[in-house]
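Journal club prep — side note

Before the paper discussion, L.F. wants everyone to see what a predicted structure for a comparable chain looks like in token form. Sequence:
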Amino acid sequence: MQQNGSAGSHGPDGSSDSCTGERQAVSLSSLPAATTRVRRFVQERRTLPMPRVMVVFSAAGETDKPGDAMSSSDSAEDDFRKPVAPAANLNLGRALRPSLNTSQDEFPEVIPLNVGGTYFTTRLSTLRRYEDTMLAAMFSGRHYIPRDGEGRFFIDRDGAYFGDILNFLREGELPHRDRVRAVHREAQYYAIGPLLDSLEDSQPLTGEKVRQAFLDLLPYYKDNLERIVEIAKLRAMQRKARFAKLKICVYKEEMPITPYERPLFNSLRFERSDSEAKLFEHHCEVDVSFGPWEAVADVYDLLHCIVSDLADRGITADQQCIGVCDKHLINHYYCKRPIYEFKITWW
């Protein structure tokens, strides 16, 4: 008969549970780090929960303390179920893969350049002289710049005028007059504002501004210039000829007489009615007409513009006056607009 407080039932090996419990208590009590929750599990003879393994990545320099493995709080089991928050200072990406622009963050003081196959050498401060330029942005460390086989920084641009760009960045030197237009185009590409302002205030760009102010009075100028080229090309191809001839009317005023005849017809000074004005409206039998306009520049100035603009396109043009329209308008009035013959040579 089993009495209260007596030893429990014997196990298979003949030893009593009380002895086993005493050995467990002794062994666990000898652990200084045993917690109250673990002792309660032993006293109630309940099965201890299986340990959970958790791997935590921490930043460099952070180490776990010995007492962190087991918490004295009763909510330790719940803490295991919470997801591990990533460390704020993890630098795994930096350790595994270096930055693409590592070699571009810092530039040497002396920069070797390869501009379209032409080699240059300059100081880094020269390229960064003006902040709002393309060169300053390229060598700021924010952009990737390719290198050639010898390590020079490569710029895919014609290097024929890059030396003029560097000379201005170094000491404000402007190019020779015959190089101004080309250097102006390069300055536009590299967005060098101070150089653009300096070039536009020098010849021949200053003269181009004045000339363009005159041509703005003729909004059809560019279209007529294209028409001259197309007609001349078509006639030369049709006739299988080396050149083509066109008749072009260039007149400054609507007067149906020449300036030399104007004193003889003072009646042209009074205002005409709309019906009378239509009597003087006509189109001369020519290929292209320019006029009228109100400016000091005369017919010969416009003829010079036409010939020079065609020359800029590689087209040779010669012109001569071959007479006037001489078309009868009304009463004793005749059209006296001058007619010019343009000879366009193709080869």
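L.F.'s comment for the group: The first strand starts at residue 110 and ends at 115. Keep this in mind when we get to the figures.
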